[in-house]
Design a protein that fits this description.
Largest sheet: 9 strands, mixed
Number of strands: 13
CATH topology: UDP-N-acetylmuramoyl-L-alanine:D-glutamate ligase
CATH superfamily: Ribokinase
CATH architecture: 3-Layer(aba) Sandwich
Strand content: 15-25%
Radius of gyration: 18 Å
Length: 315
Amino acid sequence: MPDVVCLGILVADVFGRPVNEWPERGRLSLVDEIGIGIGGCAANTGLALLKLGGDVGIMGKVGSDGFGDFVAETLKTHGADVSGVLRDAEVGTSATMIMIDDAGERTFIHYIGANARVRPEELDLNAICAARVFHFAGALVMPGFDGEPAASVLKAAREAGVTTSVDTVWDATGRWMELMAPLFPYTDVFLPSLSEAAEITGKTDPADVAAALIDLGVGTVGLKLGEKGSYVRRGDEIVRAPAYPVTPVDGTGSGDAFVAGFLRGMLAGWDLEKTTRFANAVGGLCTTGMGTTAGLRDFQGTIDFLIEHDGDYWG
């Protein structure tokens, strides 16, 4: 059985760059590059973990269409266990159009599709409970699974001795706390962006946000701060780690890469500071290539990058 099971959103991404303004209605604009890639938190985090040497199973749902074939085959080709990727003949595979400007900033148009139809009773609970880590990747955009259904799976995993982890996506419906509150008592590690966590807690300062989430039952809170790095708290232990200097090309998937780095550090048994620095490096390196995986380095390549910037700390 895989060490890590990533359950969540699976998406086919179609991206173009640079897109600095919308074309006039009914007109054509040219870009330098258009491509198709795999996206969605479960896929992004799982692929990054595989790159870092992890043993990963992916769970989720795609349509019985070309995008679904592409997603499943890409995951399989990279070495993921895809036995938990379900197919749905009634809806299409989730897909996102990503417009990337000259600065690397992304704008999205998203179709939820099959991600909305994941149900707890369809999942291989034995595989989840046999893992070392169960990561729910993409909370708040899975209408059939968010809230109490997700909490029931996290609870079963926790009771089996599995470390549970959760990451969120921006909730356009505004049901932040309603959907997340049932999950927190069964969440060992919560790794949202600061903006998402601020919507959940009503706080804005990272210290206040983390404190509020711990009060709600979360064990470890890791807040992604973008170019400012990250803020991580476990109990009374706090780590503030700056971002590493990189030349960004595309920020797509960088938050999921941070999560993969954090989980990889946990699996290695590292302390909180080392885990956080490694996660920051993985997330930063992700931005140096187009799409969600091109900028990633393998485990040793990431360590080499860290040695270059942190010196003896990684010696």
